[in-house]
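Problem statement: downstream parser choked on a complex file, so we are re-checking the raw output for the NAP run. The parser issue turned out to be on our end (a line-ending mismatch), but while we're here, posting the original submission so the record is complete.
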Amino acid sequence: MRIGILGTGNVARALAPRLITAGHDVRLGSRDPGARSGLALPTTTVQDAAAHGEVLVNATPGTESIALLAGLGEDSLSGKVLIDIAVGFTPEGVLSHLGESLGEEIQRTFPKVRVVKTFTTVDAAVMVDPDLLSGPSTQFLSGDDPDAKQIASALLADLGWPEESQLDLGGISAAAGQEHYAYLFLGIAGALGTHRFSVRVVPVK
Ligand SMILES: NC(=O)c1ccc[n+]([C@@H]2O[C@H](COP(=O)([O-])OP(=O)(O)OC[C@H]3O[C@@H](n4cnc5c(N)ncnc54)[C@H](OP(=O)(O)O)[C@@H]3O)[C@@H](O)[C@H]2O)c1
């Protein structure tokens, strides 16, 4: 698939090589592609990456995502799947979206894009290499469009998260839970002394 990753930071740099290896045609979108020439990854402007992608990945700071998407124009977003990995934190370290989640705000503000929230519960290294984990783990998806979730699910599988590791939480309203998990993530990371872990949902027998 043609994939446009918005952002060139930790998440974008982890995802891009793995998606390229899986056979996808990936472009990273930067506000200043000239400054990212050392990345050795296909990097262009945010506008060109968005135009390129059939699937877009939001890997920008969650406090900045709405403004960045608004600058792209409707044609770059209309009908596309947007895999939204972003979580917003204020400079004080508080979640920026405590009522309506960022995933919901994106879906409400850009109703023609098909938002799927996922990958908010793992660090970038684990995102693209779940074999780092000592056992099976759960990856979550939320979104209103079943076809978009199917496409996101296939991309997760390409990154090492098979269907049996994925849990569909329902509509985009469930994005709030994924985003708010950030606080627990930070607590667990403090306790373990590492960001490289994940969680597994264990139902009763
Ligand atoms: N890091 C993780 O392990 C992880 C895990 C789960 C979720 N997340 C979430 O995923 C998102 C990306 O995380 P990250 O660690 O990759 O962040 P990051 O390293 O800070 O990268 C974010 C990228 O977004 C771009 N960007 C666009 N508009 C921006 C703006 N106004 N201010 C700053 N950067 C802007 C920048 O690329 P250019 O400068 O090239 O434009 C920047 O490199 C965040 O929302 C984060 O909460 C991260």
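For whoever reads this later: Residues 2-192 form a domain with the Rossmann fold fold (CATH 3.40.50.720).
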